[in-house]
Amino acid sequence: xxxxxxxxxxxxxxxxxxxxxxxxxxxxxxxxxxxxxxxxxxxxxxxxxxxxxxxxxxxxxxxxxxxxxxxxxxxxxxxxxxxxxxxxxxxxxxxxxxxxxxxxxxxxxxxxxxxxxxxxxxxxxxxxxxxxxxxxxxxxxxxxxxxxxxxxxxxxxxxxxxxxxxxxxxxxxxxxxxxxxxxxxxxxxxxxxxxxxxxxxxxxxxxxxxxxxxxxxxxxxxxxxxxxxxxxxxxxxxxxxxxxxxxxxxxxxxxxxxxxxxxxxxxxxxxxxxxxxxxxxxxxxxxxxxxxxxxxxxxxxxxxxxxxx
Amino acid sequence: xxxxxxxxxxxxxxxxxxxxxxxxxxxxxxxxxxxxxxxxxxxxxxxxxxxxxxxxxxxxxxxxxxxxxxxxxxxxxxxxxxxxxxxxxxxxxxxxxxxxxxxxxxxxxxxxxxxxxxxxxxxxxxxxxxxxxxxxxxxxxxxxxxxxxxxxxxxxxxxxxxxxxxxxxxxxxxxxxxxxxxxxxxxxxxxxxxxxxxxxxxxxxxxxxxxxxxxxxxxxxxxxxxxxxxxxxxxxxxxxxxxxxxxxxxxxxxxxxxxxxxxxxxxxxxxxxxxxxxxxxxxxxxxxxxxxxxxxxxxxxxxxxxxxxxxxxxxxxxxxxxxxxxxxxxxxxxxxxxxxxxxxxxxxxxxxxxxxxxxxxxxxxxxxxxxxxxxxxxxxxxxxxxxxxxxxxxxxxxxxxxxxxxxxxxxxxxxxxxxxxxxxxxxxxxxxxxxxxxxxxxxxxxxxxxxxxxxxxxxxxxxxxxxxxxx
Lengths: 309, 471
What we know:
The complex is a heterodimer of chains A (309) and B (471). Chain A is flat and about 75 Å long. Chain A is mainly alpha-helical. Chain A has helices at residues 2-42, 60-66, 69-101, 110-118, 125-135, 142-153, 170-195, 199-207, 212-223, 225-240, 244-249, 257-260, 263-272, 279-308. With 471 residues, chain B is of the alpha/beta class. Chain B has 19 helices and twelve strands. Chain B has helices at residues 2-41, 62-74, 88-97, 110-119, 139-144, 168-175, 180-185, 190-202, 233-247, 259-266, 274-279, 288-294, 312-319, 352-363, 366-375, 384-389, 403-412, 423-438, 444-458; strands spanning 53-58, 77-82, 105-108, 154-156, 162-167, 205-208, 224-225, 228-229, 268-270, 300-309, 327-330, 342-345. In chain B, a hairpin with a 2-residue loop joins strand 7 and strand 8. In chain B, helix 18 runs antiparallel to helix 19 (444-458). Classes of the chains: A mainly alpha (309), B alpha/beta (471). Chain A binds chain B through residues 8, 12, 15, 18-19, 21-22, 26, 45, 47-52, 60, 64, 68-71, 139-140, 144, 148, 158-160, 162, 252-253, 255, 269, 272, 274-277, 281, and chain B through 1, 4-5, 8-9, 11-12, 15-16, 19, 89-90, 93, 97, 111-112, 115, 118-120, 278-279, 281, 283-284, 421-422, 424-425, 428, 435, 439, 441, 453-454, 457-461.
């Protein structure tokens, strides 16, 4: 009787495979296959998929990518935009986390603030792009108008800045918009980390006479390190894949375009733009970007771990 | 315990079904999206329900008008969908490679055609007897519609040779004549254009509204010859001309297609400079009303000429205002053309015979050509017999000039062998180099070097770049 029961259980356990089967099938078709196919394409000279017989060029596309100064320029643009964005985004989220997790202030209304801060993330990228293009218009944008009025108050002349048309400002404008869109997300993550810390630690520290900064530095910070690492790595991955905002807010004929073109925009040029479609090369760019992200993520994890040791 | 298995299977079944249902829902939405687009663009085509139907994907309103006319004449229902040019190639490519039977008719502009030919998007029109019509369409248009093997894939209903549209009254005052041949001499070379620009400025006029007017005439050689980048001396002369026009304040500093540019067709425009255009805080060159207000106190001038393809007749018609009748058209420094919609049949279509009938109706039917000339109020058709028939038609906006015979002559001069698939990208890169020099962002050497880098990186392995200009 006992043996029969065990057999039934084993059989029942196997049903798990059936449950995950639909997901696995979808995952194989929509994730694994495209990833492998892109790898294959990156070793070929395919221009347009389905047109002609692709020939093997092995690592030529990779060599081309690594020696392409416009690729490196696009990577630099991406890093620049991401770098400014990540400092602002995490800085702001961290600051808010400190305020809301402060043991003495005991700020109220966390739930409301959490929703409000997260709201920009719910707006479609196209709407955000349109909104900021209007606000930052170099002639009629509210932003320039406000600055103009302030200058007038002091009797000074203000030459409107073409925020999105100038290469000196446009990438940083994108960084600020990205920050506005994503700081709520980082804040929620960090707060979740803080709320996961047992109150016992804080109470014990308070009894021992630890001050606000000591508690923050010795208890809060070390215990939210895994969450911080998660936020940093996801931001890095998302940041290096930056596409929608600069793509929507730039114009190929604008002077600022060469400073706003990110790696994924550069890949798009070869993947989907009429006249320059070279799918093989675009695939290689995708893999080089993947390797860069992987390398930086590994370094990031190592650094975090070393600090922990 | 078999019931557990049954429940498990049921659950898995429901999950799978729900996933399939999701997919089904997506398909449903996209179909609905297409339908609504159709409803928006094919207004008026529902009235006549034929027993056959054609689906047309296009870039502009023209094919909607042709579709309605065809439906009227034949009873075949034509559903026309307009797609934005930026999205068009990707959408067509995706539909075609997905094996979609529709659209039946696809169009392309010259810069898209080579990719479409390589993709096998267009059906072979020679199989329907297109060769029988050779000679009936202006030569260069016929050639643009052929793939690398000389197989006819598409035909256009229009020709788009470029010309210089000039003000006859100003010509008379400054040059003492308004004769197109005589005025054409002032546009025959880049040096002549620069001299004419200086003469016009001294007389209080500006030769062009923008410095992009000679773009259509900027080359007399191909950008790529035998796989090598070819930057001819003439390209460099064009670069120098544009920079000089800009630096010496010889244009009205209007951006092409912006308010002051259109305003210049109707008469006086404020004289802008590079500084006023980019440095004041009260002006929006894209907003007509604001621009007028902001420049009310500016010194004004009148613009002498515009460089546009034959479809510029329609642009001018809508914007010349009181200057109607004072215009003339003459030849530019080279033969050139710009744009044009080429109609072909999708290789996947299951209604190829009807689609061929539609292509013939739009491009090879004299009655349609006559109708289109009248309906479009001056578009220039590609059917030689129609052009010859209308050769003596005069256009009152242009002081009674016989434009159709002029355009036909210009079209005959177009050498299509100079056109390559790389022209758009390389032309844009060259334009960027010119802008960099104009704005002072780069020296001429730096700009040319950057141009070489850009071409080399974009077409690595396809185009050899020897950097001759820097040697």
